[in-house]
Amino acid sequence: MTATSPATNALLLLLRLRTFVALFLVLAFFSVMAPNFLTTANAVIVSKHVALNAFLAIGMTFVIITGGIDLSVGSIVGLCAMVAGWLVLNGVDTGMGYTIWFNTYEIVGLVMLVGVGVGLINGILITRLNVAPFIATLGTLYIARGAALLSSGGRTFPNLNGTEEMGTASFPFIGTGTILGLPFMVWLLIAVAVGAHYISRRTPLGRHIYAVGGNERGAALSGVKVNRIKLFVYMFSGFCAALVGLIIASQLQASHPATGETFELNAIAAAVLGGTSMSGGRGRITGTIVGAFVIGILSDGLIMMGVSSFWQTVIKGIVIIVAVVIDQAQSRLQARVALAQEAAAAR
């Protein structure tokens, strides 16, 4: 006797593959509604936009798997972009009559430290002070955005093209360079995605991340260092946000304190659409990447159709709600299937 009907199994398979179905639908829709959508030039533009969203979504995936949330990633992007702009243009004034200037590699390292540092603050607030992730990261969202505004008085740092004398002439390459015909940022994304996938599927750290999200108390009793895992995922999320801040400042050759506003919305949408459960314990980096493509294609397609940016925000919000509803439906169906299989096996 079969435990479940073929229709139930087919529905469950469809729910599991919902991200690929959504990707196919948006590609089909915009290829018809926006005739220039499938051109090579537009594909390059879309890949760049997807890369920015995917970096944040990868970090967000780890955070959500542990049962948390990181609302500060957009503000970390803005802060890190401003730090990069400040270092390229002004260096660091020692107050003793001379200025310390940094080359591109040093600037990258310092900016990454800023992003990881904000992530560490998030982790400490959550693990040591027992502040709820939503509140902790909401607070750092405002702090990081305020710091970005204070760094320039709300003004833009322009002309970040660097100079040979200061060793920063290569700074624009981060956001505009290409290797073997692909944008450098896409190669960066491939490296980060492969590394994150390997961690999540092949290492004890990855197993512990899932264990914390699945049953935090049980994970602690089995010897998992829960607080260390949470510190890692928030620091990694800050790392990913810092990468995006660097890329945007390099790409535009300018940095503005409003950079990254609402980016957290896209990151959450991509992660949840890719199958990451908001209740924790479930999610895949590969699904998140596909989800980032869906969000990126949706955004660019709506722009090409002339849809207002206000409506784009509304649509992304709807996407998040629908993705969460579908995820809950999948969880309930999987629980029913598991019960049916147990009952069938007991007969």
UniProtKB/TrEMBL annotation:
Q: Name one GO molecular function term.
A: transmembrane transporter activity
Output a single Gene Ontology CC term carried by this record: plasma membrane
Q: Does the keyword Disulfide bond apply?
A: no
| Membrane-spanning intervals of the chain | 20-38, 50-69, 75-92, 104-125, 131-150, 171-199, 231-249, 285-303
List locations, semicolon-separated. Cell membrane
Which residues belong to the signal peptide in this entry? none
Pfam families associated with the record: BPD_transp_2
Keywords for this entry? Cell inner membrane, Cell membrane, Membrane, Transmembrane, Transmembrane helix, Transport
Name the source's superkingdom.
Bacteria
List the membrane topology term(s): Multi-pass membrane protein
Q: What is its main location?
A: membrane
Please report the name of this protein according to its UniProt entry.
Answer: Sugar ABC transporter permease
What species does this protein belong to? Neogemmobacter tilapiae
